[in-house]
Design goal:
The chain is α+β, with helices and mostly antiparallel strands.
């Protein structure tokens, strides 16, 4: 009997209420798919098995062990060697989940895999070849470092809620694997505490942080001096139709420059805050001085959000056109406002 016919039989048995036979057929299907390397299908059928009869503990436990054992045996030995700290620290189930969540590709020379100022939802694991990391500081292009085999690229914009602060371009043919943000969230749901453990592990694969090199080279990408500020901010997110939302998101101004502003907002969920990243918006700056009714409206883009705990996020906003210095002065925090 083919696997398709066997699966059809299993669901017919479930509909008929014949649990014992359904469990037997499902177990055989799970093992067959796992042995063929069809792990997603095996996992799906195992979930069906648990839904059909939660008391079929022998079949549930044994099928789980078979799947994980075959997954582990299917991991490329060279991959395991290159990224051995991951496999030494993660549990076998976490390591398997990570490996099979990856997509492996070969990228030709001169290809941009991360673009400065854009959303990056991938974490890159370099197996072979080289890629250069650069940043643009005003009109200048600053060379920061070269990433090679055994290094991770894209961490700052993958784990933090931030647009990419650097550009990564392949120098020659690069063999790499990448983990998408979507797959990462699935791993977080499946394995509690995975995000913190995985973040810490990935940092061990970064030989030199781009942010440290930028500081050493004084590659100031902001361009304008920033000042501590006071006031309120109303943010109107621009939709796909090009129109601003009618319901604003309110926040408290923290700092300001001619090029942008940062302000504190509330968000009950991190992924909801992340959804603002890269969005165009119109913000209305409102003076905190009761005697001063000054307001200023500016259009720009959300470039980052930093978690401040307790559902608070510091939102970084870049103006499309610089603000006049005299307008900036209206929102600079006075000593009496400290």
């Amino acid at each position: 009997m083919s696997l398709e016919a066997k699966e059809k039989l299993a669901f017919e048995l479930i509909e008929q209420g014949n649990k014992d036979q359904a469990v037997k057929v499902l177990y055989e299907l799970i093992v067959s798919h796992a042995e063929s390397g069809h792990f997603d299908k095996a996992d799906s059928l195992r979930q069906t098995l648990m839904d059909t009869d939660a008391m079929a503990l022998t079949e549930i436990i044994n099928s789980g062990e078979i799947i994980e054992d075959l997954k582990s045996k299917g991991i490329n030995p060279d991959f395991r060697k290159t990224w051995h700290p991951l496999f030494e620290t993660l549990s076998p189930e976490e390591a398997n989940g990570f490996y099979y969540a990856l997509k492996t590709v070969q990228v030709g020379p001169g290809k941009t895999i991360i673009q400065q100022g854009k959303i990056n939802d991938k974490l890159f694991f370099i197996h072979s070849g080289q890629a250069k990391t650069i940043c643009h500081s005003g009109p200048d292009e600053v060379m920061l470092k070269v990433v090679t085999s055994g290094e991770v690229s894209g961490m700052s914009s993958f784990f933090a809620i931030s647009l990419a602060t650097t550009t990564v371009i392949t120098v020659n043919t690069v063999q790499l694997s990448y983990l998408t943000r979507k797959k990462f969230l699935e791993l977080m749901d499946k394995f509690p505490g995975f995000d913190t453990k995985f973040d810490d592990l990935c940092r061990t694969f970064v030989k030199t942080k781009s942010s440290d090199i930028i500081r050493e080279q004084n590659a100031d990408r902001r361009g304008f001096k920033r000042f501590k500020a006071a006031g309120k901010v109303a943010t109107f997110i621009i939709g796909a139709d090009g129109q601003p939302s009618t319901k604003p998101l309110y926040g408290l101004l923290d700092d300001i420059s001619r090029g942008g502003a940062s302000f504190l907002i509330k968000s009950s969920k991190k992924e909801a805050a992340r959804s603002l990243l890269g969005r165009s918006a119109i913000i209305k700056l409102i003076s905190s001085n009761p005697a001063d009714k000054s307001t200023e409206t500016k259009k720009g883009i959300v470039t980052g959000l930093q978690d401040q705990l307790f559902n608070d996020y510091m939102l970084s906003f870049k103006f499309y056109k610089p603000l006049a210095q005299d307008v900036v002065a209206q929102f600079i925090k006075k000593e009496t406002e400290e």
